[in-house]
Every structure is written in C-alpha cells, then in structure tokens.
UniProtKB/TrEMBL annotation:
SUPFAM superfamilies xref list: Aldolase
InterPro entries reported for this sequence: Aldlse_KDPG_KHG (IPR000887), Aldolase_TIM (IPR013785)
Organism: Pseudomonas eucalypticola
Pathway: Carbohydrate acid metabolism
Record-level Gene Ontology MF annotations: lyase activity
Family to which this protein belongs: Belongs to the KHG/KDPG aldolase family.
Database matches in Gene3D superfamilies: Aldolase class I
Record keyword Lyase present: yes
Protein name: 2-dehydro-3-deoxy-6-phosphogalactonate aldolase
C-alpha cells in the first residue's frame, strides 16, 4: 500500500516538531490537499500521541508513519500507537528486521549502492535518499540503473517546488518534505499554502 500511496501522490509530509494538539488540524489540511503519507519524526514532542491522533482522525487511505526511528524498541512503540510506516535516517539491520517482523512498511535512509542493496535485501519497501542535498539527479539515475526494476527512490532534504523536476526526470518515485512544508509554530493555514504549492509542482511534472 505504501507504493500505491506514492503512486497517487508521491509527496510525504515530514512533520518534525509537530505537537499533538496541532496534529488533527494539520493532518486534515494535508489530506485535503492530496497527501497520503504523513510522518512524525520521533524527536518531536510526544510523537506517539501525534501518530495516534493522525491515525484516528484521517481516512484509512492515508498512511501514518514515524521518522527518525533508531531502535527496535521504537518500532514496537510506533506500532502500538497505530503507525504503519517506519522511516529511518540510516539502515540499521536490527531496526529493519524489527519493522518487517512487526508487519510495518519500511523506508530506510541510503546514499550508496551498497546501502541500497542491503536495505532491499532486508525487505525495504521504499528507499529514502538522505540527505538529498548531497545527491544530484545524476546519482539517482545511476542508482536506478543498477537497482532492481521498480525500486522506489524518495529524496529527502532540501526539496522545494522549484527543484523537483530534475529528480523526477531521473526517475524518483516521490519526495519527503520537511521544513519546506512544515515548521513548528506554523498554523494549519500556513501548511495548506505550502502543501498546495508542492502538490501543484508534483502534478505539473506528471
């Protein structure tokens, strides 16, 4: 279902710093604009509460996940909160295996072919290219040339509506959007404006 969600709209909302009391309103505007994957990094305030609120308040076709997942114990806590996607900045095999054993979707962070193949071997559903600021579209093209056909690559870091086109041309399946979409203290209306700009850019490129 993660790949289907990205096929509908390849934009993943990364809500670092989200507070539980904001979660429902911000989740709703993102859903209304077309986002179907929303991630709450675990270094946010009370992240498991926000994950539970998002899961309880949004339709089933919107996947809710956790980012910056660093341990197998956190995987279990995410699942208990209703989270469905484990997003990592790295590719720790213990965390990867815990996520698969828990039946959750998995998006580990990779940069090199070695990391990418190892993550796929452990059952990764989508590969998070992080930090994308280090990677140009030529790197994406080279990776996709050697990785199994159909591998989903999603750059995260420094993505704006204006710099998506070369990555899309290179074959990425989507983008993870952090501070360009949401920063702590933003209102739901602020987020809606930014979400519209990203979705419009994504649609123009497809």
């Amino acid at each position: 279902m993660l790949k289907q969600a990205l096929a509908a709209n390849g934009l993943i909302a990364i809500l670092r710093g989200l507070r539980p009391e904001e979660a429902q309103a911000i989740g709703q505007v993102l859903y209304d604009e077309g986002f179907r994957v929303i991630e709450v990094p675990l270094n946010s305030p009370s992240p498991y509460d926000s994950i539970r609120i998002l899961r309880d308040s949004l339709p089933a076709d919107c996947l809710i996940g956790a980012g910056t997942v660093l341990t197998a114990e956190q995987v279990q806590q995410v699942k208990a909160a209703g989270g469905q996607v484990i997003v990592m900045p790295h590719s720790d095999a213990n965390v990867l295996r815990a996520a698969k054993a828990a039946g959750l979707y998995l998006s580990p962070g990779v940069v090199t072919p070695t990391e990418a193949f190892a993550a796929l071997e452990e059952g990764a559903d989508v590969l998070k290219l992080f930090p994308a600021e280090m990677l140009n579209p030529g790197v994406v093209k080279a990776l996709l040339a050697v990785l199994p056909k159909g591998t989903a690559l999603v750059p995260v870091g420094g993505i704006s509506p204006d710099n998506m086109a070369p990555f899309v041309s290179a074959g990425v399946s989507g983008f993870g959007l952090g501070s360009g979409l949401f920063k702590p203290g933003m209102s739901a209306d602020d987020v809606a404006v930014r979400a519209k700009a990203y979705v419009a850019a994504w649609k123009r490129l497809h």
